[in-house]
Design brief:
The structure is a single chain. The radius of gyration is 18 Å and the shape is globular. By secondary structure, the protein is of the alpha+beta class. The strands form three sheets. Strands 1, 2, 3, 6, 7, 8, 10, 11, 13 and 14 form a ten-stranded antiparallel beta sheet that branches. It has a two-stranded antiparallel ribbon with strand order 4-5. Helices cover about 25% and strands about 35% of the residues. β2 and β3 form a beta hairpin. α4 packs antiparallel against α5.
Length: about 240
Amino acid sequence: MANVERASYRAVLRPGADGTESLEAAVRDAAAQAKRLVDDGALLTVGMYRHGDQLFLYAEHMYEGDCRSGSDAVRRAPDDWGWLHGLLRPFPSMNGRDVEEVEWAAMHPVFWFDEPKSADYYTRRPRPDARCGRIAVLYPDKLMDYVCHHQAIVREGLLVGDRYQFISIHDNVLFSYFERPRDRGRRNISGVDRPSEEIRRWLDVDPASHFNHFPEANGDDFLVIDTLFDFGLSSVQEGNHDDA
């Protein structure tokens, strides 16, 4: 049985890379490879998103049986694919006790409403209207408070919401993958119908005060950003693959 491991990544363009033909070509190449990875069954869903010089990538990696594809392989995947290589500023990354440089930094998962039990369980039926990305910036002194509250909500497993939403963090930047319509397939992790005490605790600490808001977000905590490309598998039984 095929299983799914979700992951998000962050990258930053090098100075001078924006608007160049080489960047446009690199995005086209990455999109073509992303579609092949979906067609070949290596990825269930993938999307790349941009705001200014910031790039974000969401991927649902597929693997067989009980053996996961390997956290190191997942962590390094976009670097191993060579996506936008040479156009990105490297991040320092710890590998054991050694420090290495990566162009795509693996983000740490923070919050989700549901967990993929298998590729079949997580395949979209029907396909979403849109696969989207949004970002937020936390005040540094509020970062741990945000993370602790949201991890507590996940552990409790009672809050019902968009089963495909997945929020990750790198530095003080949050990236949220979500799909439209937002009310499709609402679930919670536990399957228990009971009010969440942890969401009440989060609402009691003034959530909006944690965010350094984007003016263009018009008061929302998160800003929806541009989609560069996205692909996904829409039906395992029929083998139908979405176009970008």
